Amino acid sequence: GATLGILGGGQLGRMLSVAASRLGFRSHIFEPGADAPAAQVADAVTTASYEDVQALTRFAEAVDVVTYEFENVPTSALEVLQVLRPIRPGREALRVSQDRLTEKDFLSGLGLRTAPYAPVDSLEDLHRALGAIGAPAILKTRRFGYDGKGQVRIMAPEEAVAAFDALQGAPAILEGFVDFSHEVSVIAARGQDGSVACYDPGENVHRDGILRTTTVPARLTASQRQDAVLLAGRILTELDYVGVMGVELFCAPGGLVVNEIAPRVHNSGHWTQNGCTIDQFEQHIRAVAGWPLGDGSRYADVQMENLIGADMDRVPELAREADTALHLYGKAEVKAGRKMGHVNRIIRGT
Ligand code: ATP
Ligand code: MG
Ligand code: MG
User: Fold this and answer.
1) What is the residue range of 8's domain?
2) Strand order in the sheet with 65-68
3) Which is the closest atom of ligand 1 to the Cα of 176?
4) How do residues 137-191 score in pLDDT, each as one tens digit?
5) Cα–Cα distance for residue pair 342/324, rounded to 1 Å
6) Do 60 and 137 share a domain, yes or no?
7) Which ligand places an atom closest to the C-alpha of 150?
8) For site-directed labelling of 224, which of 92, 251, 332, 336 has its Cα 20 to 30 A away?
9) Is 206 in the pocket of ligand 1 (CB under 6 A)?
């Protein structure tokens, strides 16, 4: 059978490996760190840096297609890999989503609503941007942010200097604060034949910048639900995308506002493991392997809860809960703020 190469050995890579295995594929993980969650379940692992051209070359030659579990794959590594094997999703999706400024320009270029934004490379830029956008606002690093890291809220213009200093000179973008009632996301997939399939949008609750729960169905009107799915389809088609993508949205009084996109399987799509016949991980493997997309329709209401840091202490009691599926990532060390696993609870009508 074919071998799928996965860049990144975290929990997303692990769950992709498991899904690949279930479809009869082999998986080969490329991961710089030791003891990675995905390395425990994959058929093969290359532990090397993304600067190691020889290791990248051997990895590519050992696989049939390359995919990834995170969007910050260095461009230099992609250059090495792309001449040897297809990379799916393709380079354009990575280029657009690696940088919050490129991403916002792309989304607004499609006519989609985003928060008002401006690039910030100097304190002067920040003062000017605050003048145009107003407070409250959020200053975010353009690159490498996740789980709310690399972000500072600016509640009043007087906080500008402290906020600018907090990002230590990293290229940034100022975003106006979107007055949303709640957050939702669409997990969308596009196959090599150009067909698009979206999962039912989930409603996301964050705490301290980290996703806590995703609940399906989300609170959306029928027309909002249709808007969400249509805009996700437009994004994927515009990028000639192959694979699964997460599209994060704010529900605002004037309509849906796109927060960000992630060119990969997404934490807010984990509920599909126990709510759908074909979950997001299998859907991604299917797309990347050139299979037809699977049926992603939802057969249950589900709430996904992330197990973060000390939440792991609750595992013995969670294991006794009815209608609750545990998914643990096998991470050796528990740390505050680290995603250790999640549970999917089937919600039964009363
Ligand atoms: P992720 O882990 O999802 O990749 P991230 O670090 O890339 O997160 P964002 O998604 O940009 O961060 O922001 C994290 C959360 O902060 C959002 O889900 C939302 O709750 C809040 N937030 C971000 N930008 C805005 C905004 N412009 N207006 C209001 N709230 C915002
Ligand atoms: Mg993000
Ligand atoms: Mg986000």
Assistant:
1) 3-87
2) 44-46, 26-30, 3-7, 65-68
3) 27
4) 999 999 999 989 999 999 999 999 999 999 999 999 999 999 999 999 999 999 9
5) 10
6) no
7) 1
8) 92
9) yes
